[in-house]
Specification:
Layout (H helix, E strand, L loop, with lengths): L11 E4 L6 H12 L6 E4 L10 H13 L3 E4 L3 H16 L25 H9 L3 E3 L3 E4 L14 H6 L11 E4 L6 H9 L4 E3 L1 E2 L23 E6 L5 E5 L3
Parallel strand pairs: 1-2, 2-3, 5-6, 6-7
Antiparallel strand pairs: 1-9, 4-5, 8-9, 9-10
Bound molecules: manganese (II) ion (MN).
Length: about 240
């Protein structure tokens, strides 16, 4: 079931591409939004890799769910990758090859024996590729509306970086492609049919800052953005890891 109804009077928030930045994510939810269990929180994937607190972000999301917060996480390409690597490892790898050698950037996810804990595997497997809401589609990367059955086109939904066609009427909110802040603000203000939310939060980490020249003006990336689906208010939280 991927249709999510707007229940009660709570707010509806969307956040994408947390990438291991737990402090920033918590500050956004707890201090800026003051999230309550009446609100719905949609997460567009890429919880892990790049930042330092990969396990921390997953544990926090799982804890919110346990505490009856209405959290709806989607699958990003980083979850797809780690799950694929894990399944390959379990099915095909000779036992002497450690899973850690196949992991890219999230060593803190592994237990003492170098395995991926069952709770994380179950979480990754549970993640859907999209949600449909009353006036929105939510997806990690893109939807190919020219595909005969777009919602079975899983690789586009987690990987595609080119996304420019949406016939409407529902707005698509997506992450995955780092988008400069002025462009995000413009798309939100215009209520565009395609709204990007990934502002490259992890570029606020010291180890990535030197990559910022790719984006021209530095102030335009490095924030975790949150969109209120009902008011179209955009909350921009600077990386504070
Ligand atoms: Mn991504």
């Amino acid at each position: 079931m991927t249709f999510i109804s707007h229940t009660g009077n709570g707010r509806r928030f969307v956040v994408s591409d947390i990438h291991g930045c737990l402090k920033t994510f918590r500050h956004l939810l707890e201090n800026r939004l003051q999230l309550t269990s009446a609100d719905q929180l949609f997460l567009l994937g890429d919880y892990i890799d790049r930042g330092e607190s990969n396990a921390g972000v997953l544990d926090y999301i799982l804890r919110l769910k346990t505490e009856n917060y209405q959290v709806y996480p989607l699958r990003g390409n980083h979850e797809e990758m780690i799950l694929g690597a894990w399944q390959l490892h379990k099915n095909q790898m000779p036992p002497h090859i450690k899973f850690a050698d196949r992991l890219w950037d999230a060593p803190d996810l592994l237990d003492a024996t170098g395995e991926l804990p069952d709770t994380y595997v179950a979480f990754f497997k549970s993640l859907p590729y999209f949600y449909e809401l009353d006036n929105f589609y939510l997806v990690h990367a893109a939807i190919d509306f020219k595909h005969p059955r777009p919602f079975t086109d899983y690789s586009t939904m987690v990987w595609e970086k080119q996304f420019s066609y949406n016939p409407g009427p529902k707005i698509v909110v997506h992450g995955h492609k780092i988008t400069p802040l002025p462009e995000i603000i413009k798309r939100v203000e215009n209520r565009s049919l395609i709204i990007p939310l990934d502002n490259g939060c992890y570029y606020g980490l010291a180890k990535f800052r030197k990559g910022l020249f790719n984006f021209g003006r530095q102030k335009e990336v490095g924030n975790l953005c949150c969109l209120n689906l009902d008011t179209f208010e955009l909350v921009v939280q600077e990386n504070n890891e």
